[in-house]
Amino acid sequence: MEKNNDSGCPTSDIDPLKNTFSTSDENSEAPENIETFSKIIESRIAKYNSGEIPTRLGKMTEEESFFLEAVMHLSKLTNVIDKSSTSGSTLLNRTNLVLQRAMTFMEEEFRTLLEDFGGCSNSKVDKNSDYPSYPPEVVTRMNRIATAMISAGFETECCQVYSISRRNAFYEQLKMLEFEKINGDDVQRMPWDSLQGEITEWINVAKICSSTLFPGEKRLGESVFFDSPMISQSLFSNLARSIVIQILDFAEAISRTKCSAEKLFKFLDIYEAIRDLVSAISESFSNDGEHELKSEILATRDRFGEVAVNVFCDLESSIKNDAARTPVPGGAVHPLTRYVMNYLKYACEYRDALEHIFQEHAKLEAYSSSTTLDDHVESESPHDDVAATTPFSSQLMKIMELLDSNLEAKSNLYRDPSLRDIFLMNNGRYILQKAKGSTDVRQVMGDTWCRRRSTTVRQYHKNYQRETWGRVLQILSHDGMQVNGKVTKPVVKERFKNFSTMLDEIHRTQSTWVVSDEQLRSELRVSISAVLIPAYRSFFGRFRQYLDNTKHAEKYIKYQPEDIETLIEGLFDGNPTSMVRRKT
Length: 584
Prior knowledge:
With 584 residues, the chain is mostly helical. The protein has helices spanning 11-23, 30-49, 62-77, 86-116, 136-151, 155-176, 184-189, 192-224, 229-255, 264-281, 288-320, 335-348, 351-368, 373-380, 391-411, 417-437, 439-445, 447-475, 489-510, 518-543, 561-569; strands at 482-483, 486-487.
């Protein structure tokens, strides 16, 4: 009884093939070798067609391996057949027929492996999926088949089967991700609320394409066509082109819609998604046509970049033109300050994208003005902080300077110089805290800017303290209390009365002022207490005795030293009947 191999086929069928491979010479005994190879190939195909050897996922058997070797050897032997003779012509016709049948067989098996064993090719993927999840043994089979087909001169058929199969699988993924082509005119007419949802879906699709689908297709192609890297690159490039063109259509339409400041962040999301797409497929670009596609992708991305630049220009204009005739009650943080700082905080979350956008914009400006980029950056950034030397940092510096100028102008709406200082202190502190509270903003603005801002806020604090409490401390001065070398009651009465009157007026007025930042409010109260309470305690202790026997002394001495701290604690809380406390 004959011994069978691991495929169930008699070893007698394989042994002659081993001997033929080991002894064959393509330039001798061609007819005999051709006949041997042809029989083995036809026998394999016949067994497959009869269902005796079904396609399977296990390790490639020895018989299957020899079948592919036979195909490649038979293909090579066609080159040494004497085509001028009748017998040679007949032999060539037989060889071509066998090869054609072999190619049809391998093409079908290749297609079956591609379409039936791709795992998540038929299930929705996400950014963390292993795509496409062909088992290693299937990838090995596909590689062997592709190598044999290409070696035998059937590269076109092989690539066509692979290309159609993978393109269909990719489109199926897009369908499962609910990607739908939207007409450009429909995009223009769509309300922003609806369009936001479409953009979110598009970004999700683009990100999955960049992080999972394109890298997966690239890896698969490189494995299947391991022996033919140029073919692998070409197949991936063609697939990427057909997909990217469809994906870009939507982005192109969005780039033509009107962008406002509130829409910028969605536009930056699209910018980043296109950037990642370029990164995922750019390595496959090798010829002029592919570079043209890359240029088109980059042009679309850069249009979103220019939109971003224009939005910041509009923000500059809105700050310049934000003129107010009525001051904010209580010297509180101005709505413009809140808006600008919160906007910049969110913008800086896109720091990498905006750095690149403004860098490219600076290059264009430098080119158009015939200056170098270094000259441009230096002229726009007179700051000595390293973080402030990039075009984006310079842009933010410019916005901060415009905001400062606007707030300075608005502070002049207050008649009371002390309230003017409170207003500038509130807004300056808010700006500083927003910058320090965001790692992105702080890195863009730099530590030097933060230190300068802190110094400015402290100066407003000093100005307020001098303007408000300097006059009070003058009243509590011991100078001028004596007449002809003696302390007189009228002078003591006047000083105590003036102190009480002035303190009442300050409390009545400044208790309605607003300092929303708890730390700043505490710092103000502590600093006032530090100068006022010791001064009053000293004055009270020195001169209270002169009114001990005075009738109605309480008319002049309204406050005990311990009352002062309570009064100070009531400052800057805002008037609850006329003012709503604002949140930072």
